[in-house]
Amino acid sequence: MMNTMKDTSPKIKLISKRSIAIISVYSVIAIIMGIICFLPLISELSYRKAYILSTEAKIQNFKYKNRFLYSFYEFEKAIKLFPWESHYVIEYIKELEVYALNINDPKIKLKGFKRILLLLDRIQLIDKINPWFHSKRASTLFYLYQATKDKQYLLDSFESSRLACFNDYENPIFMINYANILHRSNKLSEAYYYYKKSLEVDDRFAESYFNLADIYTRLNKKPLALNSYLKTKELNKDFNNIDAIILRTYISLNELKKGESYINNYQLFLSKDLKLIETIVIFYFIQNKYDTAISYYKKYLVYSKQPRYLIKEKLNQIYFDSLIKTNKKELAKVELNQLIDKINLINDSSKKQFYITLKSNLHLN
């Protein structure tokens, strides 16, 4: 008998070799893309960790600066995992510079600046024009010149700073940076030109006026220096030591009444700044206002929180001289003998000799 029933069982269709090859290629691509997409995430996490560590390293006047080393490890990892992100490199450079400037070991300092140069080489392969990179290279090379006295670093610094300035010739910041390097290298006429040029573009930069004042002072043009210092004060009332510098300029110009007005107008008598108080002591001493000089000296002692034997010899000399001039010879003798006794305990022969000579000159023997 003949079997007329049909075979209804499903037939298994085999995948062709071509399909297997295509699936394999797509799978490999998917895995690679997954890794590529995942790496930036890990890189970003490492960068954020590095940022936190470097911030911790800077607190309390760099009390925990060893944390910079852990921060640098995380920065290196972030750069390795995502090498095309120049932002990580730039931030790493900034933190390396802070570390190198605040470390005392010259070998570690040198190593830090050389590492910055290598990182700049890396990002300048991607962008050879960016003036920020040239400017940062210039400052790094100048630090290396200061550390090694290798003139090639100085020449390279000039060139990098010049490139930054020329690549963005309307940016006053790069002009000022270039002028700073010229200034520190005693190329005053060229530095003067670029400071003036930066102010033509934007006259709000206090640093340009301050540095112009320094050039005027070196050229013995003190009235022009004073005007520039006053402009600096106008633009930035908290500019570093500006009040003390202006007051010293008034002293050098013998414009003591204007100096007195400056003290009163800005209420400098309330200041706790030691540099300024020291200058005020000198200001009143040279006018023979000895009682006022003594009172500011005592204020200096309070805010310095240092014993008298650690105070500058010149300032102590003014104090003892003022005591003599105000008929307080016995007090001067007692305090000077106490000072010499303290110096004997720390065994500082140069200080001891200075005060013994002072005692003799003031006839306090």
Unreliable stretches, pLDDT < 50, 5 or more residues? none
Most strands sheet: none
Q: How far apart are the termini?
A: 148 Å
Total DSSP E strands:
0
Radius of gyration: 33 Å
SS element count, helices: 17
Amount of beta strand: under 5%
Average pLDDT over all residues? 89
List the helices and strands and how they pair.
Blueprint: H1 17-62, H2 67-81, H3 86-101, H4 106-126, H5 131-148, H6 151-167, H7 172-184, H8 188-201, H9 206-218, H10 222-235, H11 242-252, H12 256-265, H13 274-285, H14 290-304, H15 313-325, H16 329-346, H17 349-361
Helix pairs in contact: 1-2, 2-3, 3-4, 4-5, 5-6, 5-7, 6-7, 7-8, 8-9, 9-10, 10-11, 11-12, 11-13, 13-14, 14-15, 15-16, 16-17
Explain this structure to me?
The chain is mainly alpha-helical. The chain is built from 17 helices and no strands. Helix 2 (67-81) runs antiparallel to helix 3, helix 7 packs antiparallel against helix 8 and helix 11 runs antiparallel to helix 12. It is elongated, with a radius of gyration of 33 Å. The N and C termini lie far apart (148 Å).
Keywords:
365 residues; mainly alpha; 17 helices
Short description:
The protein is mainly alpha-helical and 365 residues long. It is built from 17 helices and no strands. The longest helix is centred in the N-terminal third of the chain and has 46 residues, at 17-62.
